[in-house]
Design goal:
Its cofactor is Zn(2+). With 430 residues, the protein is an alpha/beta fold. It is built from 18 helices and 14 strands. It is globular.
Length: 430
């Protein structure tokens, strides 16, 4: 990793480098994605089956595209590590308990003049959850995407995930989906899965919102179908920023930086510190870890491309840099982490203290691990219950309640030259 003195020039260069990882900068794939979406929109199952055979090397039919109860039963039986079932259940409890605190209720206020105002909170009817698959399995992502929808009260949760070449879904993924409460699971991945969820096919129902991470084709497909359905966000590569001073344990810091770098070569790991001694020790620890970690090739490329150790003169400069970068994950390892936490405005999730490492949030603590990336933590939030509800305003006025304000409304409408608006009020008092 490069040790760099942070100033305005280096900060600007780093921010520009990080932004290059955004899915918005991969326009060369957009035409391909658009063609896939239009084909699925126009030809339904036929197009989905063709793309599944082309990309996933599996032949699907209307009879085999949906996961059966028997396949779910087999997944429990075929799970290599049976202990995972109980681990998934314990994680499910933590995630459910956390998200239950996010629920909001409908409310109605009756005023003295007889007017009634309120807000009706309703869960969306059908949510589509995309889960990456194929060679990898992400049961944690299954839990994080489905459980907030369950807490919100979504009627139907429809999951899509790509199968292997034998047409099977990884057992841990199916177990997690069943435990979390998925209503339907379909064996389809990529942009074709997003299109199927957005527009519906003969086998796959159209949903109201699509959530879940995926590769660049999935990200661009979600972007393209937005407006026909809602989406959670356009997720970019993973990232972590560790804010540390001389009290931090360099071995812990190094381990946490590498926990993100192993995701892929586009992942970003950044240390911001006031201590050159810590910076040098962290760099040394990283070299030691690289000799024993299984994904060291990916980690090395990630660190070479988007790994930085940034030296700052004061912690105030470090806090300012962290707020400007707005990292997906932010770890604080300082003498007074809670005080610094209060000064952080922009981060997807904040991990406070040396025993709150980022994987704790990925798997078990309870808060959602679907977080804003590429600086979007400045205006986006983690996935949560709010993503699966909608709010409807309620208004009820009697003639007696409307009378004192009718002239204000008429004058407002007249000022905007909307005479039909004004007339709608006038006629009630003629």
């Amino acid at each position: 990793m490069k040790i760099i003195k942070l100033d305005e020039t280096t900060k600007k260069d780093i921010l520009n480098s990080l932004l290059k990882r955004s899915p918005n900068n991969y326009g060369e794939y957009e035409n391909t994605v658009r063609e896939i979406i239009e084909n699925v929109r126009n030809n339904g199952d036929k197009a989905v089956f063709e793309y599944s055979e082309k990309f996933d090397k599996v032949r699907l039919t209307a009879d085999t595209i949906r996961v059966t109860d028997e396949e779910i039963k087999e997944a429990y039986e075929n799970l290599d590590n049976k202990e995972m079932i109980e681990i998934i259940r314990r994680a499910k409890k933590n995630i459910t308990d956390f998200h239950a605190r996010q629920k909001v209720n409908s409310w109605i206020e009756t005023r003295e003049d007889g007017s009634i105002l309120g807000q009706k909170v309703t869960a969306i009817e059908k949510a589509g959850v995309y889960v990456p698959g194929g060679k990898a399995a992400y049961p944690s992502s299954v839990l994080m995407n489905i459980l907030p929808a369950k807490v919100a009260g979504v009627d139907r949760i429809i999951m899509a995930t790509p199968p292997d070449s034998n047409g099977r879904i990884y057992p841990a993924t199916l177990v997690a989906a069943h435990e979390a409460g998925a209503d339907e699971i379909y064996k389809v991945g990529g942009a074709q899965a997003i299109a199927a969820l957005a527009f519906g096919t003969e086998s796959i129902p159209k949903v109201d919102k699509i959530v879940g991470p995926g590769n660049i084709f999935v990200a661009l497909a979600k972007k393209a179908v937005y407006g026909n359905v809602s989406i959670d966000s356009i997720a970019g590569p993973s990232e972590v920023l560790v804010l540390a001073d001389e009290t931090a344990n360099p071995r812990f810091v190094a381990a946490d930086l590498l926990s993100q770098s192993e995701h892929d070569e586009m992942a970003s790991s950044i240390l911001v510190t006031t201590s050159r001694d810590l910076a040098e020790k962290v760099k040394e620890e990283i070299q030691g870890f690289l000799k024993v970690l299984s994904r060291s090739d990916i980690i090395e490329k990630s660190l070479e491309n988007y790994g930085y150790i940034l030296l700052v003169d004061t912690m105030e400069e470090g806090i300012a840099a962290a707020n400007e970068i707005a990292s997906e994950h932010l770890e604080i390892m300082t003498r007074d982490p809670y005080n610094i936490m209060t000064k952080i405005r922009n981060a997807g999730a904040i991990f406070i203290g040396e025993y709150s490492s980022e994987p704790l949030g990925d798997y078990f603590a309870g808060p959602n691990h679907v977080l804003p990336t590429n600086g979007t933590a400045k205006f986006f939030s983690p996935l949560g219950v709010d993503d699966f509800i909608k709010k409807t305003s309620l208004i009820s006025y009697s003639k007696e309640a409307l009378a004192p304000i009718k002239d204000d409304i008429i004058k407002f409408a007249t000022q905007e030259k909307l005479t039909a608006h004004a007339n709608s009020i006038k006629v009630r008092f003629e």
